[in-house]
User: Which sequence fits this backbone?
């Protein structure tokens, strides 16, 4: 094992109490998903969603400003225990001609364990294996779009030796996101975030990195980034459009259907709650006005559906 990598892992072990406070990891054991991929089309784009793995979170973390009784009652129609909210991590592959665009990479795959809440934990996402099972070689990926830099979205940017998982790809993120994760502000985050930042994002300093700078910016024809800050400073959603068909990849603008029904319900995962709410409203209005198919990253896989207005506000419609 690389010495620097070993030293950093040891740092994480020594700071395991901080990791327990992390808004990212909340359960030791991941769940093996029953369905691992879903293929559909948006005009000329062949779209394949991959379920990297599934983690569980708690109502206290997803709905931090809501009482336990209210959250439990609201979760009942979903058949969900407030202490075990299942949450997929996904990647989306877009194929059009020679273009193969991967949106978010999943958690990545590490052989060694990290210490978490006093127990060893392995971070072993399935996205690379799922791509291979579909006949897609890592060298064929032309673009990797990083909607924001949380571990479940960028953990697969690099291999354990810090070589790029997709060696011929251009890696695309937002300048505001990059500036935050390159700043001293990251030092206030739990060590696990620093680990994934050091081993997946920092290597891009001298790599094939493209930074977006606008609130709305075309990545490729038919693929547009829409900045939606709040969850992180430079998060963006991705609009995919071809031959009159539209898909909105929402990233982490919302984490559960209850965040659509109750816009004021906050999650500890968001850095700026007021901005996060504004981004939610903006994306709901966009998706509804243009009758877009929406992919909600952390909803039950494959997370596809639509949003609709109700007398009370908004609701999520599966499919």
Assistant:
């Amino acid at each position: 094992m690389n010495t620097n990598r070993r030293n950093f892992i040891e740092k994480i072990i020594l700071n395991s109490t901080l990791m327990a406070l992390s808004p990212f990891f909340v359960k030791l054991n991941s769940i093996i998903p029953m369905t691992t991929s879903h293929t559909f089309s948006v005009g000329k784009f062949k779209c394949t969603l991959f379920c990297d793995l599934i983690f569980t979170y708690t109502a206290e973390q997803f709905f931090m400003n809501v009482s336990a009784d209210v959250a439990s009652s609201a979760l009942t129609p979903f058949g969900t225990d407030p202490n075990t909210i299942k949450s997929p991590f996904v990647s989306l592959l877009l194929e059009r001609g020679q273009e193969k665009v991967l949106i978010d990479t999943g958690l990545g795959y590490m052989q060694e364990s990290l210490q978490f809440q006093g127990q060893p934990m392995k971070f072993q996402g399935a996205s690379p294996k799922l791509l291979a099972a579909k006949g897609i070689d890592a060298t064929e990926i032309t673009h990797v779009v990083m909607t924001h830099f949380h571990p479940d979205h960028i953990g697969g940017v690099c291999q354990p030796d810090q070589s790029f998982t997709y060696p011929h790809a251009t890696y695309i993120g937002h300048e505001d996101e990059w500036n935050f994760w390159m700043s001293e502000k990251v030092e206030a985050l739990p060590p696990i975030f620093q680990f994934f930042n050091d081993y997946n994002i920092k290597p891009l300093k001298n790599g094939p990195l493209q930074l977006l700078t606008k609130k709305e910016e075309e990545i490729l024809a038919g693929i547009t980034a829409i900045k939606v800050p709040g969850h992180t400073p430079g998060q963006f959603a991705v609009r995919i459009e071809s031959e009159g068909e539209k898909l909105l990849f929402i990233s982490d603008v919302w984490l559960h259907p209850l965040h659509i029904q109750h816009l004021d319900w906050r999650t500890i995962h968001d850095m700026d709650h007021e901005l996060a709410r504004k981004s939610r409203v903006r994306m709901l209005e966009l998706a509804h006005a243009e009758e877009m198919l929406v992919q909600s990253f952390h909803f039950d896989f494959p997370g596809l559906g639509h949003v609709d207005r109700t007398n009370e506000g908004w609701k999520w419609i599966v499919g």
